Amino acid sequence: MVKRLISANTSEILTMKAAELKDSIKASEGRVILSEDVVTSQPLGEDITNAEVAAAFGADLILLNDMDVMNPTIMGLYAGEETMATAKPRHDGRIIKDLQRLVGRPIGVNLEPIDTDADMLEDRLEIARGRTATPETLAELERLGFNFVVLTGNPGTGVTNEQIVKNIKVAKKEFSGLVIAGKMHAAGVNEPLVNPKIVQQFIAAGADVILVPAVGTVPGFTDSELTEIVKIAHDADALVMSTIGTSQESGSTSYIENIGIRNKICGVDIQHIGDAGYGGMAPVENIFTLSKTIRGQRHAVSRMARSINR
Question: Which residue has the higher pLDDT, 110 or 158?
Answer without folding.
Answer: 110
